């Protein structure tokens, strides 16, 4: 399968020829809502629309001092039942949340781009989540602790930036078995052509931690990428952590498959052929995409999985649920607004009075 071929692209650099172990599992859509407890805590509605997956205790505030995701959630939309994190990728984790991609038609109206599931998985929309341990069995990584949060990318960017781990790929109809870690042919910008296999969006988080703070004012300073240059490593877990951030943490990565194929009609695209897709942050370039992560695994479950070097969506150290059960974990939107159908504006582009 394609994902196994992708794993083979992450070979241990010592030349063992063995595929890199990586947890890879699906998180179904929990809710699509205008809330962002990391960047805009307590703000209802938040400026931008997001898709959220994971534990159903997600809300607008989620104060890390009082909100414990595992004990506050009654279900999770993810494969592993001990993962109550929420994840999201935004253009503006473990809350998992993604920005919402819209298509702007030639007549100026917008329509939300649906998502489809990565190869070998089942879900209702959502995202595919990866956790990658250290490349060698002799070196374990330190799992995140309660209250841990981080962010990568810059929502305000509209041009090339240093968010090298945030990228897009114009997918072929079949046969793309190359890397998933923002290497060629990925780009920071949104593709400017009709993609036969849709658009894939990937977010790869830092793998080095200061070992002291679970968050920082900018949600970034307490973590860092390895000191090895980007061209020297296949994944962030490879390489040496800087002295300021000496603790190696799991490589968190997620991918979203956007079904732009349904808009591959020249009659819908702008007459000049320009790129018509827009993130829900009103970003037409793709450079403003970024990802948020809020840790929420129960007890030491993630540490056990990393120590066991679990691979794929099956792990003897963890409990799993069926795709059908995961898809039943949903919640109602807090902000009541039209998000589907052909719209004259993306939700949040014109803030409420």
From TrEMBL:
Supply the InterPro entries for this chain: DUF1996
| Signal peptide range | 1-19
Keyword vocabulary terms for this entry: Signal
Q: Which residues form the DUF1996 domain?
A: 36-297
The answer to whether keyword Thylakoid applies is no
Give the protein's recorded name: DUF1996 domain-containing protein
Native organism is Xylaria flabelliformis
Biological classification of the source: Eukaryota, Fungi, Dikarya, Ascomycota, Pezizomycotina
């Amino acid at each position: 399968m394609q994902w196994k071929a992708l794993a083979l692209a992450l070979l241990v650099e010592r030349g063992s020829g063995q595929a890199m172990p990586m947890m890879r599992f699906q998180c179904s859509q929990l809710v699509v809502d205008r809330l962002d407890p990391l960047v805009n805590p307590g703000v209802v509605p938040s400026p931008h629309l997001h898709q959220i997956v994971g534990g159903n205790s997600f809300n607008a505030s989620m104060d890390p001092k009082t909100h414990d995701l595992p004990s506050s959630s009654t279900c999770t939309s993810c494969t592993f039942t001990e993962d109550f994190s929420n994840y999201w990728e935004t253009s503006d984790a473990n809350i998992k949340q993604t920005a919402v991609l819209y298509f702007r038609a030639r007549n100026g109206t917008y329509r939300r781009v649906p998502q489809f599931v990565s190869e070998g998985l089942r879900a209702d929309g959502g995202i595919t989540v990866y956790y990658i341990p250290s490349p060698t069995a002799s070196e374990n990584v330190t799992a995140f602790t309660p209250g841990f949060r981080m962010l990568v990318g810059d929502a305000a960017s509209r041009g090339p930036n240093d968010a090298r781990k945030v990228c897009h790929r114009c997918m072929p109809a079949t046969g793309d078995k190359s890397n998933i870690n923002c290497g060629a042919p990925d780009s920071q910008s949104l593709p400017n052509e009709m993609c036969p296999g849709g658009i894939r969006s990937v977010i790869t988080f830092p793998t080095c931690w200061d070992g002291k703070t679970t968050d920082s004012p900018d949600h970034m300073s307490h973590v860092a990428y390895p000191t090895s240059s980007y061209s020297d490593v296949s994944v962030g877990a490879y390489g040496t952590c800087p002295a300021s951030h000496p603790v190696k943490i799991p490589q968190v990565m997620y991918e979203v498959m956007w079904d732009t194929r349904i808009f591959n009609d020249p009659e819908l695209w702008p007459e000049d052929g320009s790129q018509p897709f827009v993130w829900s942050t009103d970003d037409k370039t793709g450079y403003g995409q970024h990802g948020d992560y809020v840790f929420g695994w129960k007890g030491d479950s993630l540490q056990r999985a990393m120590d066991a070097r679990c691979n794929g969506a099956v792990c003897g150290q963890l409990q799993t649920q069926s795709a059908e059960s995961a898809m039943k974990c949903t919640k109602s939107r807090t902000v009541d607004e039209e998000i589907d159908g052909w719209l004259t504006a993306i939700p949040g582009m014109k803030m409420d009075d």
